[in-house]
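[Q] Does anyone have a clean structure-token version of this?
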Amino acid sequence: MIEIKNQTKERAILVSVRTKDISKETAEEHINELEELAITAGADAIMKVMQDRHAVDVAYYIGKGKAEEIKQLIEMNDIQIIICDDDLTAVQARNLEKIFERKVIDRSGLILDIFASRAKTKEAKTQVELAQLQYMLPRLTRAWTHLSKQFGGIGTKGPGETQIETDRRMIRTRIAMLKDKLSKIEQQREIQVQKRKETIRVGIAGYTNAGKSTLFNLLTNAGNLAEDKLFATLDSTTRAYQTSSGKDILLSDTVGFIRKLPHHLVASFKSTLNEIRDADIILHVIDSSHQFYEDHLRVVEETLTELDCHKKPIIKVFNKIDLIDDRDKLSFLMNKYPNAVLISAVRGINIPKLNDRIISEIESEFVEEKIKLNITETRTLSFIHKLAEVISVKYSAKFATVHIKTNKENLQKIRKLINEK
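[A] Here you go.
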């Protein structure tokens, strides 16, 4: 993966389409978020253009007439890059580039560019390259057009610059190799998980820029990067954390979620997101001061469902309450989400309450039980070791009594296996 560092900011124009099923406020929030993404990528967002349409134009995204209008704005304001708020088809991108005679990227391409600049570990860089190649494959004609014009800057970080003579077969071969590489990384991660399975794992999830890393640093003194930018954290980090009751747990900080997150991107970052999958408890951090916090909350819940994590114990943590002046809003949050915890990670407000809530969840979710097995059932015992902390095993002439501690979900799996025998 190759990164290009820009010496000067690229002047960008942001473009979105508002269809009849999207409110004006929601559409404005979406394009404002796109502006934040553009700034994070290093662009200078000069202006925003929103086109009201019955439906997205299949050939030009915004329609040919609107595209011609934007071309005039591009020339008048010396724009170098056009960023669209939705994923573009190869046809839409090619048609827009013919009109604009400038580089055109979409929301997914912009997110991938940010990921390329933020990836630090071998795993993250591998995942970024895989996602970029999967993104590029159906747009290969467009990629060649970019390269023939020697475009650089935002939207071209990663493998794109070196793929002038690469055909689809070579890209597919590279994708297969990267998938195999990530599979081996996941196997190594699984070994690490098995080694620490006796320790309760808590994963921090949430919308990007909700304050996850700030909370993580506060609880673990990890010193992770915590910026007021989207996707400040890309690589997952795990640290030991001791609750006030003396219980040792492993706390993991992960990449933030965002609306319109491409499915192939979720798939590519599967091994990083496994920190959420492997967690016994999830802290869902929400920026309570954000105007569209409920929309953010819904996006994260949908992504957790996609990751099959929605059945895990989830503690909603409404962060940044120090930025809320309206006491009625705080009362509303407490009434609507009675089991949630309202905190400020920056100012350390209500952190003891969050600590108590974690302890309470641990005590309610993790149970001890003694299971009697025939001593010949070695496979069953091996299965139990994978799903539970084995406190002790006592053998008699024919039986083994296994004292275990695990969460309720895994206990049901163990009981089901034993009952089937």
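[Q] Thanks! Anything notable?
[A] The chain has three domains: 10-162, 196-363, 366-420.
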